[in-house]
Specification:
Helix content: 40-55%
Strand content: 5-15%
Strand order of the largest sheet: 2-8-7-4-5
Distance between the termini: 50 Å
Radius of gyration: 34 Å
Structural class: alpha+beta
Number of strands: 17
Amino acid sequence: MFCSKCGFEVSENTKFCPKCGTPLPVQAPVNNAPAPAPQAPQSPKKSSKAGTIIISVAATLGVLIILFVLIGIFAPKDDSDGDSKKTKDKVSTSATVAVSAGNASNDGKQSDADVKKAVESVISILEKMGNEASNLSDDTKPEDLEELVAKIQGYRSEVAKIEGLPENVSKASDDALSITQEVFSTLKSQLKFAYAVQDGFTEIVKYSDADDIANAFKAYQTFYDTTECPENYKDLWEALYGAMSLEALSVLRSAEAEEYSDPLRAESASYISIRASKIADRVMNSLMEGYDDETGFTSVQLQAAVDIIKEIQSLADLSAEEIRNKKFDYEYENELFTPEYNFIDTIFPALYNVYDAFVTIEAGCISGEKDIIVECEIEGLSQKYTQSYHIGAALTIMNIKPPASSAKMNLDSAKDSQIRVTLKDKKTGAILDEQSHKVHIASRNDIDYSSNAFGTVSYDNFLCFLSPSSQAVTTLKREAVNYVKVFSESVMEDLRGYQKSAYFTDYENDGEIDENDIWAGQYLTTYIQAASLCRAMSDLGVRYVMDDFSWENTAQHILYPDQVLANKSGLCIETSLLIASALQSLGMHTYLILIPNPGHAQVAVETWRESGNYFLIETTHLPNEDWDYWDDILLDDEEVGYDQNPIKYLSGEELSNYMSNCYVIDCSDGNFLGITPFE
């Protein structure tokens, strides 16, 4: 027989996979009625993801109930059944066992009869605990589990007070009860969090359905601030908050788009919202996977408790001397559960800052706790990562991302490497586990947007190639300054971004600023700077490589601005990134426009801050011998809209029609989204 989750081969009678802890199909004993299949709580759900988490926790409860019942140890006793009555009679004398506070053991000084009675008393207490657990149902609430945890603590106190109990039995009993208590305490936190997520999203959706966006975000902030998230899910909780922050940005941008009648802001808002949804879905999926893995780990913990209890039950057939000398086979205190590793297979250095992790590790203690140190290094790519973690009875999820190496790296071509991970005992320094995983490191020019396993991947990630502070941009701007003077006939003498130029001056009115002359002031000031940058790129020898930019493929090879200038050639996306980087360095509001059919890329720059009007820049017009002609038309006749012109003005309506089926990326979002160049 093989485990359905990990494929590990197990024997036919095994109830739980020894590798991953997944419950395996087991036929129930004849005398035990099978436990009912767990169902989701019947509370109303607006968010399917939140509801699914509760279903997962309910399933965990179902697994524990089945574990108790099918093992046959804690099954409720029926007096009409001979075998059950025999077992009940066997421990009935436990009520007469003397109890005295503060006397956990007697080191073998008690009489044989007292030792036997003490063991029977422990078995009785463990049976009561099992029956309490077996009374759980699939609609159990967090407060029910909290009550159960308190009762188990009470049982631990009872065991500690039993007179005549040998120390070895006392310790084993407390281990079993401690493990069980920790399991249900963890489950209580999970279930409480799951219901909080469900209730919080229900409240948020209520406002969202009514288009009351302001109160929806207020509800989310309250939800985030007041929800008690289990410690092992804190990272995911922070990521979910980040997704909602992106959604807030999308809403604000939509409002701005409506205020400015700006189709580019509107398109950008929609894609920011899509990215936020991707992050939220990934976080919720990770939460679900975490709950599923926690279920497997919980099963391993409960099986450990059952193993101990079975050994304690077997003591009833031993002599007092054999009980005193019994060495228990199962000792789990502070034992680190074999971690589960999830490694990335291919790393794209260009996306280094986009990744959440390169390795995820799940670990927990069967019982107790342990402080560990995680070391991780990617040969030829990263510095050594060293971080301490406190591992308790709940499954801890560790997202490992070593910082990039500070040494100069040659990443011009792809190579194979190794991710090495070492887990050490923080107290002793002893190595607990070591892993090595082969990883492929792509070249720094490669980009992939097909997998969200280790970070949010979308077309926005082209922003990682923007380099406004690069040497190429500095060189381009120095060359462009000369053309600013030529194009403006010395009215302008520098690249100034959105600062006012002499074009704002009305010479017929004593040099006073004419705020109403938008064309002469804003449009010409921006147009001349954009045209100067394009002309400079042409004069620096950059030529368009006539090849479609196929962004429907899952991977691309993209040159950085420095490489475009050095190679004096580039695809449309590469020359667009160079011009966009230069405009961004001037503080100008710039977009990348990706056109799917045919695969193409352009640049749009806002004519002035918050104007809602744009120039569309076609960087493939290289070289262009007609710059003087088009610039003369612009300066003399104030017309820019001809198709042949590399830079043309589009009205809002024209932009709306043009933008259909395009992917719009706001270049100012790079820092906010964490999509920055790998350096």
